[in-house]
Amino acid sequence: MKEISCKLAVIGAGPGGYICAIRAGQLGVDTVIIEAVKAGGTCLNVGCIPSKAIIHAADEFFAATHFASDKATLGIKVSDPSIDFAKTIAWKDGIVGRMNSGVAGLLKKAGVKAVVGRARFRDGKTLEVDTETGIQVIRAETIVIATGSAPVELPFMPFGGKVISSTEALSLREVPKALAVVGGGYIGLELGTAFAKLGSKVTVVEALPRILPLYDADLTRPVQKRLDELGVTVMTDVKAKGLSSDGSGLVIERSDESLQTIPADKVLVTVGRKPVTSGWGLDEIDLDKSGPFIRVDDQCRTSMRGIYAIGDVTGEPMLAHRAMAQGEMVAEIIAGKRRSWDKRAIPAVCFTDPEIVSVGLSPDEAKRAGIETKIGLFPFAANGRAMTLQNEGGFVRVIVRADNHLVLGIQGVGAGISELSAAFSLAIEMGARLEDIAGTIHAHPTQSEGFQEAALKALGHALHI
Amino acid sequence: MAEFIIKMPDVGEGVAEAELVEWHVKIGDIVREDAILAAVMTDKATVEIPSPVEGTISWLGAEIGDTVAVGSPIVKIDVSGEVAVEAGGADTPTPNPSPQGGGELSVGPVAAEAPSAPAPSKAETATAKTESPSPLWGGARGGGNTLSASANASAHRPEGERPLASPAVRLRAKEAGIDLRRVHGSGPAGRITHDDLDQFFARGPQQSAPAGKQPDMSVEEIKVVGLRRKIAEKMARSKQRIPHITYVEEVNVDALEDLRARLNAEKRADRPRLTILPFLMRAMVKTIAEQPQINALYDDDAGIIHRHGGVHIGIAAQTPSGLVVPVVRHAEARDLWDCAVEVNRLADAAKSGTATREELSGSTITITSLGAMGGVATTPVINYPEVAIIGVNKIMVRPVWDGAQFVPAKMMNLSSSFDHRVIDGWDAAVFIQRIKALLETPALIFVE
């Protein structure tokens, strides 16, 4: 097969890789992108997008079942709702498929050549791609590694059969009657909540003392409350030991070392993700690592000249939008522009019920950094729009420097609050002060008023509390 | 090469030493005859030392703040003929070259000989007035103000803190290859704006004019010398040794002000305008005759109180260089107009720095007044070793209950401190009450 020579080769067409390739193509860089599976990576195929589709379907179905119960207050009457889960999955697959072809179209439009197959380094300038039609050799001046991450497997409970990862959970043929979730992080809780709403009896098992350990307790409290309302059993300080011998469920060990078997049709293991650093010839080029990740500098350069790495393979936070920003930056660097990583904040969103958003420093982080802070918190219970949406749980919280009111961090928890992340991030990236937020008209009636009110609260003159 | 030595001159009667408060020259400077070399200070008078010769300063014998005995050498001046010969054409070195010779000194050879002498500063310093000893030694002259200059060189930003700028500004800086840490941020919280970048491009890495409030990290070192040191020592000694009792009383000065206005309106042209002070001085003289223990100096080391018959009233005066206390001698022998004339004369002398040492010492009791700035009450510090100080506060029209109604009255407070070791509170109060009575009925001041 004829060798391909190009300026830039990108390994992996996830959010980091495809953005990098599109941007490079826009800038006139001769670019090839190599993807073994489907364009869009984890995010589009088995992560962000399909999970949000399932969560939406679960919310809709749950609303219908709620209307059918005698607890409904809106006066809407529904009798005996049911769900054809295969159809739900097909709808989800339709969205994913549309986006797959959308990404492929964008790459094409940018003049990027896509090669399907598994890439492998031969040396620092040469890749071999195992395609359907044979080995394709690609010689590139510059190579970007965007191989992403994969779910962590428990050695005593490997994926397969009853034991599933998030990938399989998003493609189940039917709603499991009983679902055990190992790991109370955001992925486990997002999916656990969705299946609870779809009718599963869900049990979440977390080894640490509380769920969502990366967020502070104030933020996770409304989520914990909602999980209780949904009938989800949350067990903390508990270790998963493996499937029971008869295969009927998950064996757990409590802190007092007593064992218990939780009946489960499926056991969803969401104990984290690990960078994909094998299977593509890392040994051939011997890059420096930082823990399990590839070490990169503030321009995403690896220890080898001409080789960059972006996205989950380079470390935490493993978030699609971080990878996209890195990909864009690297493409511009390769095109000869001066760039370096100078972002002040990477927002993190948890699509639990209610949703959690965190941008910048939390109160504890600010304290640990030795910064004297002021904090303003506004509860959605005092927000008109939240009431009309029956979403009164949660709050917006603003953390600022006490001396000059520079916004350091913004967090919020509440239904639909993920959309407020734009305002939160913009405030921090623009270097807003409390007065800037307080002095901006926020449309009424929206939940975004909570943001302004939190700033006013920190200034000492909130109007609605 | 001849060397001319200048010794500390005898600056006043009985003065054995003087404090050097200001150098007007430094080593290497070229000086002309009569150029001011230094300022020294005795008790409270500052004396300038002129150069009797012209030449190059080769040695300075004291630092600012040093106390130098009269007769000690303080300056050596090279009056070497080389300069004079080359410039003026004189045949032999002369210890006292003619003014013409000096006038012909060209800058060229001088600069070559003494490269450390910044010629421009010489002319400035030679003509500088000495009445206010400069608190900044060296740094104020010769362009040595490096501390504040370097503090301004870069934008203030706490160590390790990332520059604050919007993504668009960051991008522009990045593309121009500018490290934003070097750019001053004029926006809120030190945010770097597009305008700040424009300024940076236009002017380079200098300080752009900060718009917002800026923390000032500079610390200026000011040597406490000269008059300031004397004031500091005297105040400290007074407060350390004397247990002050401060007594504040209000005085209705309606009648006094009427009288004063009348006297000022009808006064002879050669007489000064009267202030409250001469009346107060006369009232004090009258009261001291009844209570002589108030007009005294307490030598607490010897344990002796010197009660003075003469009433020498010190008048605390603010001058550009600090507080001085010129003294109206023998107020008991002066009438109202005499007192006024003498107060005016001394105040002018103190402010222009021409008051003599004798005029600035020897008081037995002191008056302190902040004049129009006034204030409601003060806690005056006794002019050690005196035993009393009378503080005059501002006259204000206040409502006063006359027994039937409130009426407007011109009221003035007297805030006075006494040495409680030798003046009992009762006596202090009696003294002030007596003065109050005299001032409220001013005719009594003049009744013999």
UniProtKB/TrEMBL annotation, chain A:
Molecular function terms from GO: dihydrolipoyl dehydrogenase (NADH) activity
Coiled coil feature spans: none
Pfam family membership, one: Pyr_redox_2
UniProt keywords, alphabetically: Disulfide bond, FAD, Flavoprotein, NAD, Oxidoreductase, Redox-active center
Domain of life per record: Bacteria
E.C. number: 1.8.1.4
Stated name of the protein: Dihydrolipoyl dehydrogenase
Species of provenance: Aquamicrobium zhengzhouense
UniProtKB/TrEMBL annotation, chain B:
First and last residue of the signal peptide: none
Coiled-coil segments: none
Region (Disordered): 87-167
Protein name from the UniProt record: Dihydrolipoamide acetyltransferase component of pyruvate dehydrogenase complex
Gene3D superfamilies: 2.40.50.100, Chloramphenicol acetyltransferase-like domain, E3-binding domain
UniProt superkingdom: Bacteria
A Pfam family: E3_binding
Listed CDD domains: lipoyl_domain
All copies of domain Peripheral subunit-binding (PSBD), residue ranges: 164-201
Cofactor (UniProt): (R)-lipoate
Keyword field contains Transferase: yes
InterPro entries in the cross-refs: 2-oxoA_DH_lipoyl-BS (IPR003016), 2-oxoacid_DH_actylTfrase (IPR001078), 2-oxoacid_DH_E2_comp (IPR050743), Biotin_lipoyl (IPR000089), CAT-like_dom_sf (IPR023213), E3-bd_dom_sf (IPR036625), PSBD (IPR004167), Single_hybrid_motif (IPR011053)
Domain Lipoyl-binding positions: 3-78
Family to which the UniProt record says this protein belongs: Belongs to the 2-oxoacid dehydrogenase family.
Keywords: Acyltransferase, Lipoyl, Transferase
Composition-biased stretches (Low complexity): 111-134
